[in-house]
Fold this protein.
Amino acid sequence: MKRIAIVTGASRGIGREIAKMLAKEDIQVIANYNNSEKKAIELQEELKKENINIDIFKADISKREDARKLVEYTLEKYKKIDILVNNAGISEYKMFTEETDSDWNRVINNNLYSAFVMCQEVIPNMIHNKKGCIINMSSIWGQIGASCESHYSVSKAGIDAMTKSLAKELGPSNIRVNSIAPGIIDTEMNKHLSLEELEYIKEEIPLQRIGKVNDIEKCVEWLIEDDYITGQIISINGGWSI
């Protein structure tokens, strides 16, 4: 029987490529999106041309009710969940003294709370089946902090702490939980950076290049196939955090 994977924030960027990679590995993917319906449909149609079928599901997973509907849909249709990739998230560049309560809550809810509720909703099925793999998408800023992105940094640091806690709690049920902490990756999230800014960042990175989505994909594939890695925060940043 096929393995079943939910990928949140799967219509764009890293999430989109992870969903494609998993689907091509003969894993049944439920690709979650919220605002980018057109891109989600395009992803589904692109894979159909290769005779690969994925489900797309609209849900604002920063809301418990929507997260629950996503999980219920998956269980009703496929009866199990083997893999959860918590990729959905947003970023915002703002000085700490200018952050509003609304800014803080929006980023924390979209990045940290969404991962919390998705884990809570899928874990009972994984415990029942005595197996599971959860991959949380963190960030270099969760480890070393980013100027003018305190709320984003806090949300990612929270994901890393939750990852370690859940790995200890769920290990006896054969459920592995890990985080991937990318540095700067060539996606839409970083399109606001100028060529000059990108060159400056490259100079700070020992490998002298911006990361590619494929660098993340390979790690996701490894974490899914491995059966003894858990509780790890895996940095993929070209040595930027050294």
The helical segments are 13-24, 37-48, 64-78, 101-129, 141-144, 150-170, 195-204, 213-225. The CA atoms of residues 62 and 114 lie 4 Å apart. The two ends are 42 Å apart (CA to CA).
